[in-house]
Amino acid sequence: MILRWDKKRYFIFDFDGTIADTSLLHAEAFNEVFRTLGISNFQYDAYKGRKTVEVFNDFFKMNGLIFSDEELANFVRKKQETARRLMKYDLKAFDGAVEFIKLLKQKNYILAIATSSSKKGVTLALDRLGIYHTFDYILTGDDVVNAKPSPDIYLKSLNAASILPQESVVVEDSASGAIAAGNAHIDVIIVNNKSLEKSYCCTDFNSLISELG
Questions:
Q1: Which of 37, 111, 133, 162 has the most CB atoms around its CB within 10 Å?
Q2: Any idea what DSSP says for residue 64?
Q3: Helix (H, G, I), strand (E, B) or coil at 202
Q4: CATH T-level assignment (fold) for domain 5-21+93-212
């Protein structure tokens, strides 16, 4: 895909794995909960990009484990609290990510976050990176029922800004996020994941900075 910068007005960013490298952080947060249950076979890579409650539900179902709704809610709360604690000390943006976002803002593009993470978690993370106020809209897993690859969060992002799909670009790192953007009829750029280069436009933030000028 050749990006026509003059035809785009709106950039919608995923957060985890796109702007910041949070995989190890989220993996450790899940594993802290699972260790209290004596579980050691959880592999976070298989669940990247999904809502926390969905991860627990699917993992327990696949392993024949049954917990009450109250217990599940407690697991979700503990995982999210742990992730936020870890973010305070160990959160790093990918090379060029913050610079690209600030450059877009300088050039008067409209910016949004569309992430499956919780609102508290992503608010803390964006603030830590110094870019919370750079975004015009922030949509999280708290704002939609269906997580990616459902297009719901991207459709809601379009509605929030009253902007058409053809005027927008999604920046993602995962296949589920790319599928969600495609189902919302929005062009997608993949960063930090060369395994998708046969199916999508894959690049890096420094290259995007050079293109944008």
A1: 111
A2: T
A3: strand
A4: Rossmann fold (3.40.50)
pLDDT in tens, 73-91: 999 999 999 999 999 888 9
How many whole angstroms separate alpha carbon 78 and alpha carbon 118? 13
Q: Which has the closest alpha carbon to 29: 79, 92, 85, 71?
A: 79
First to last CA, the chain: 18
Nearest to 7, CA basis, from 201, 170, 167: 167
Tokens of 111: 């910016």
Query: What is the pTM (predicted TM-score) of this model?
Result: 0.89
E strand or H helix that includes residue 201: strand 201-203
* Contact between 137 and 161 (Cβ < 8 Å): yes
Q: How many CA atoms lie within 13 A of 148 on its CB side?
A: 29
